[in-house]
Amino acid sequence: MTNTAPKSVAWRGNVDGCLVLLDQTKLPGECVFLDCLDVPTVWEAIKQLRVRGAPAIGIAAAYGVCVAVRESMTGQWNWGQFYKTAQEAIDYLATSRPTAVNLFWALQRMERKLKSLDGSASEVAAQELLAEASAIHAEDIAMCHAIGRAGAELLTDGGVLTHCNTGGLATSEYGTALSVLFTAHDQGKKLNVYADETRPLLQGARLTAWELMQHGVPVTLITDSMAAQVMREGKVQAVIIGADRITSRGDAANKIGSYGLAILAKYHRIPFYVAAPSSTFDFKMESGADIPIEQRSAEEITEPFGKRIAPVGVPTYNPAFDVTPAELITALITEKGVIQPVTKENIAATLQ
Ligand code: MRU
Fold first, then answer.
1. What percent of the chain has pLDDT over 90?
2. CA-to-CA separations, 188 to 210, 309, 335, in angstroms, rounded
3. Which of 80, 113, 144 corresponds to the end of one domain?
4. Residues 41 and 173 in one domain
5. Which of 40, 157, 177, 210 is most buried when burial is the number of CB atoms within 10 A of its CB?
């Protein structure tokens, strides 16, 4: 099936063009595109989840560095000015969200490219940075499709539970876990996807249900707290989610609620799959306990979407991610193949 979904991230024009983001906070009601003409706009878009999902954040940040230097085209910048502006953008964008390693992976690539351009004319350097960001973008498209092909082999007809949003919106296109579902569906498998609504920001209800319906994949929306009951009723033959950071031993951080699903899947003897590109692996980190977990504002729980539902002043705790230990993951699905069982050795042999 051709992919006609609106693109979450795009660069419009040449080096003096701009980053265009699909504002995911407005979906599914409205398709609003945001032109990012300065770095604070990119930072705010990542922080507020206008662009979200680990790979999409990385791509947006890479283009964000290009946004920083777009004025070098008209300003006759010398190398020192160009370097300082780009490096400051890299450092600033790295403070937007802490958990998804794709953000840091993409920014480190941009930093390496910047350093390799030492002394270049600013128009040449700007072209090279845009080429690097575009390469990160193009590689993600290829990785998403390869993940879909690798993972579809694991699925049979039946129910599949997913959490948060891992589709084209969360990536360049097609997605990670959703790419597996799209591919299996296109191959003729009869899937019934259960999409967790994903409290508190409802990425499952707003984004995953929307993407699956657009693609013609049968989807049933449930609240997060229904997963155990739906599994007990025998409606789920596999669970598949994405990840924001996977350590060298296979511990996987993903949207809050993922760890609970893994425990439920183990109890009900349901395979639990995590689909992610190699850019989501952090080989410098072994234990999932070391993954920084983003803490978000109380208002996301007490006043979701602007409507107060909790008493004023109630204390809250709002971690945006949790970590599923490798022992609970049946297989990791990557663009380089399926890793099963999930061990440090198997991960290294497949990806390094
Ligand atoms: O807070 P979000 O919406 O950026 O969280 C996204 C997720 O948890 C996704 O499951 C993950 O990034 C995988 S994206 C293909």
1. 97
2. 20, 43, 21
3. 144
4. no
5. 177
Look at the chain and report how many structural domains it folds into: 2
Q: Among 22, 27, 162, 165, which is best to mutate for testing ligand 1, by the most ligand atoms less than 8 A from CB?
A: 165
Residue 40: phi, psi to the nearest 5?
-55, -35
Report the run of H or E that residue 189 belongs to, with start and end. Answer: none
Give the residue, out of 46, 52, 104, 144, with the most ligand 1 atoms within 8 A of its beta carbon, to mutate for a pocket test: 52
On whether both 225 and 166 belong to a single domain, the answer is yes
Could you tell me the distance, in angstroms and rounded to a whole number, from the CA of residue 262 to the centre of ligand 1? 16
pLDDT tens digits along 216-267: 999 999 999 999 999 999 999 999 999 999 999 999 999 999 999 999 999 9
CB-based contact 324:252 (threshold 8 Å) = yes
- pLDDT band of residue 3 (cuts 50, 70, 90) is low
Range(s) of the domain holding residue 172: 148-351
Q: 274: number of CA atoms within 13 Å, CB side? A: 34
Residue 270 alpha carbon to ligand 1 centre in Å: 22
**What separation in angstroms does the CA of 312 have from each of 296, 302, 315, 338?**
17, 8, 9, 48
* Ligand 1 atom closest to 175 (CA): 15
Reported as a single tens digit per residue, the pLDDT across 99-151 is: 999 999 999 999 999 999 999 999 999 999 999 999 999 999 999 999 999 99
Q: How many A from CA of 170 to the centre of ligand 1?
A: 7
pLDDT tier at 291, thresholds 50, 70, 90: very high
Let me know if residue 285 belongs to a domain.
yes
Active site residue 244: yes
Q: Kindly list the distances between the CA atom of residue 40 and the CA atoms of 43, 44, 208, in Å, as whole numbers in the listed order.
A: 5, 6, 28
The answer as to whether 342 is a domain residue is yes
Does 331 lie in the same domain as 275?
yes
pLDDT tens for each residue of 168-205? 999 999 999 999 999 999 999 999 999 999 999 999 99
Residues 138 and 152 in one domain: no
Active-site residue identified among 140, 196, 224, 244: 244
| CATH code, 158 | 3.40.50.10470
